[in-house]
Amino acid sequence: MSQQGFGLIGTGFMGRAHAIALGSVARVFDGITAPRCVTVADDDARKAQKAAHELGFERSTGHWHELIADSAIQVVDICTPNYLHAEMALAAIRAGKHVYCEKPLALDVDEADKLARAAAQAGVVHAVGLNYTTNPMISVARDMIAAGEIGEPTAFSGRYLEDYMASADVPFSWRCERRLAGSGALADLGSHLINMLHYLLGRPKSLVADLRTLVPVRKDPATGQHRKVENEDIASALIELESGIPATFEISRIATGYKCGLTFEIFGTRGAIAFDQERMNELRVYASGDASGRRGYRTILAGPEHGDYGRFCPAPGHGLGINDLKVIEIYRLLSAIERGTPFWPDFSEGLAVQRVMSAMEASAASGERVTLDWQRPGSAR
Ligand SMILES: NC(=O)c1ccc[n+]([C@@H]2O[C@H](COP(=O)([O-])OP(=O)(O)OC[C@H]3O[C@@H](n4cnc5c(N)ncnc54)[C@H](O)[C@@H]3O)[C@@H](O)[C@H]2O)c1
Fold it and tell me: Cα–Cα distance between 332 and 328 in angstroms, integer?
């Protein structure tokens, strides 16, 4: 197996999570060559140098273009604010590098479409950091649905609620500015929920959506002045899936009390499944066929019999964490590069997610139901 040299761009929340996972992936998984952590880039060279030292990279730079031009780097790992994803990913693809990009893939459908086409044409491996679907318990849910264990699915009720911007005192940041973030709660949180829906039950056929900004201005730390928040705090939708099943979304970055409230319930003709990311090692399952007087949700605790769990821990119920999902994600990325196994969610899924977000924005703006035509690339922008 050939060693892959990584160049990491961005050293914030996700940059650190990726670095931790790069350091442990070959210790957790057998038969994979440990990646080489070559260069870390940040816009501030001193910050990059400090991060390289702390995160175990050989060198650092304040200019991300240098990292892309470096022949020691085969994988460009993008953990920067959303507006930089397209420019950085396109430059990496043009240089023939594999690309691992945080979500959302891009600011809009046009950008995402361009990226998905360029990556496919270049024949490089392309990955989007939509990590929640890598949870072994989510694969259990998908397997149960596919095996008919809850009968025919009849509805999906999905929420992704957090409160990181619930206080009006939380300052203005790149996440509030359309040019830098694209949409708000929808891009940050909704992208994960859409990917989850796609993984478990398939894609929307049509939807009606509503977007709201409840905190209209926030103080900009750079100027001390209040600035208009340019994207939504709350997004909700009534969806019809291609299969005809109805689904609902409730997405918020101001949902007081929630820290990582990605939850869903899937109802079926013979049972139901419920999941809560804040309790990510549990899958709750209801079976209508249980004896009368004995019906109720039971909890399946994550254990070594579930997917990659056993790679981390031999004992059931001890639990995986969010950083372990990043280790699984990077293992799958390296497997795709080294062994040619498929990687998902790739840029085409990043584009599909972007199209659903765009359809929600279009519906909220027009007040009308929007139809997604998946046969026609780029429709329902
Ligand atoms: N997968 C997940 O669960 C998840 C969670 C959080 C964030 N994200 C995504 O990760 C990305 C980064 O988010 P974050 O929370 O880590 O943000 P952050 O603000 O914590 O970090 C962003 C980093 O990018 C650097 N940066 C900014 N401009 C740059 C430039 N021109 N060149 C090089 N570096 C530059 C910043 O200095 C900072 O180190 C976003 O796209 C976000 O949506 C994903």
Answer: 6
pLDDT digits (tens, 9 = 90+) for 169-228: 999 999 999 999 999 999 999 999 999 999 999 999 999 999 999 999 999 999 999 999
Compute CA distances 208 → 234, 257, 344, whole Å: 14, 27, 27
From the alpha carbon of 173, which atom of ligand 1 is closest?
Answer: 19
Burial tier of 149 (Cβ tally within 10 Å: 0-12, 13-18, 19+): middle
Q: 169, exposed or middle or buried, with CB in 10 Å at 0-12, 13-18, 19+?
A: exposed
Q: How many residues does the chain have?
A: 381
Mutate to test the pocket of ligand 1, among 67, 80, 99, 333 (most ligand atoms within 8 A of CB): 80
pLDDT mean over 324-346: 96
Side-chain-side CA neighbours of 107 within 13 Å: the count stands at: 18
* % of the chain exceeding 90 in pLDDT: 97
Out of 9, 13, 18, give the residue to mutate to test ligand 1, the one with the largest number of ligand atoms within 8 Å of its CB: 13
pTM: 0.97
The one-letter code for the residue type at 91 is A
> Which residue in 43, 50, 64, 44 sits closest to 19, CA to CA?
50
Tokens 């970055």 sit at which residue? 253
- Give the residue among 282, 203, 281, 279 at the shortest CA–CA distance from 247: 203
For residues 217 and 251, what is the distance between their CA atoms, to the nearest angstrom? 20
In the block, tokens 């031999």 appear at 314
Looking at residue 1, its pLDDT comes to 62
